[in-house]
Amino acid sequence: MCNSTFRRGSVLLASVFLTLSSCGRTPASADPHLSPLAAAGEPVINELYYDSPSTDAGTFIELRGPAGLNLSGYTLAAFDTAGTQYRTVTLSGTVPAGGYFVVAQDSTVPNRSLVNSGADLNNGSGSVRLLKSGTVIDAVAYGTPSSSKGEGTPAATTGAGSALARVPDGSDTNANSVDFRVQGGTPGAGNGGATGGGTTGKKVLFDLTKAEDAGNADWRIDGAYSDYASALRGLGYTVSSVTGTSVTSTALAGASVLVIPEPQNPFSDAERAAIQSFVQNGGGLFMIADHRVSDRNNSGWDSPEVFDGWDGSTPGSVSSAYQASLNSDVLFGLGASFNSSFSDPVYTATPLTTHPVLNGVSSAGVYVGTSVDVLAGTALMGTGGKTYLAVNSVGSGRVVMWGDSSTFEDNTLSDGSTGAYNNWPNLSNATLGKNVVRWLAKDL
Q: Is the pTM of this model over 0.85?
């Protein structure tokens, strides 16, 4: 089906039709067939998996409803971003004992109740409605449709390999953005969680104290990482930057996750102690490295040195307060390999094992980066005998290292210009980026 086109702020939300006549919402006359909430005893659209990696296969639409309910007379209607209906799926059979009825694109979907190729929906933005004899019982919109057919503010787009799921199962507040969150697909099984979204209010910080926007890099949440930041906000996180010249305990107070994307200047002993304490006490740390000789601000440091510590050669002289820098290989068991260069080829890393971070992830791009030395923890993705993604638990916290900063960049820059690469929607890059933060925040 249609491939999604991402741009800066790709997980923005759009207005949609409602039929409630109060609370300042669009009156029922705007759409006389749309019910405000799913009525008692009626099913709801509980999960959508519409964008699998590469050519769509194994997609599904899951309903949640009373066991034994006969679905004769029910249909699913799919609408494109302009609100034009392009597909109708006629339902048949009854809701299984577990309460989940799964309409599968093909026979590869587990726990399927009905196989119909119409379960493969538009990947970018759109809407799906559940109808009974022509009356809308439930409706879901996702992405930024120009004419929505959902309820309340649309849910976020998923990116390839992830699903939109109601959390908790069957909940319906008449606002798709509240009821649905992005997670791995669970056809015919519970979606987990206790409240809609499950992540509301948790703070994610992107470091900007170490010249992460120097030279031709722009790893800013208002620049080349703006799609990343928007996607996290779509999951319910509060996203901001650590600015100034140093990372302090005060700056980290109340945060759940700290992201350090290709730092160009070293951390002091005091900063290292603050970050170590943050992780030991339950925080999540995401270290994003790049290849050797990627000194973008001519400080003499590149990101592998910043993470691991001074290599004793470049820069020529370093004061004792900065020589260890973050010391990530010693403190966190994960080091950015010094065995890389700007001439390394582009790789596609693939999973080496199973792990929650890899839910919906089939591959991710390493656009000239460095491998990860796993001294403690678990190697998750790699290629050619090298690891490019690894995780570890340290104290009460968690740490992740990934070997390339370009993986999560979009094609926008903080000065308003257009960048050279838009890697965020490629492969499973977006799903990986979101999953890492969710795991570090202990939401996955």
A: no
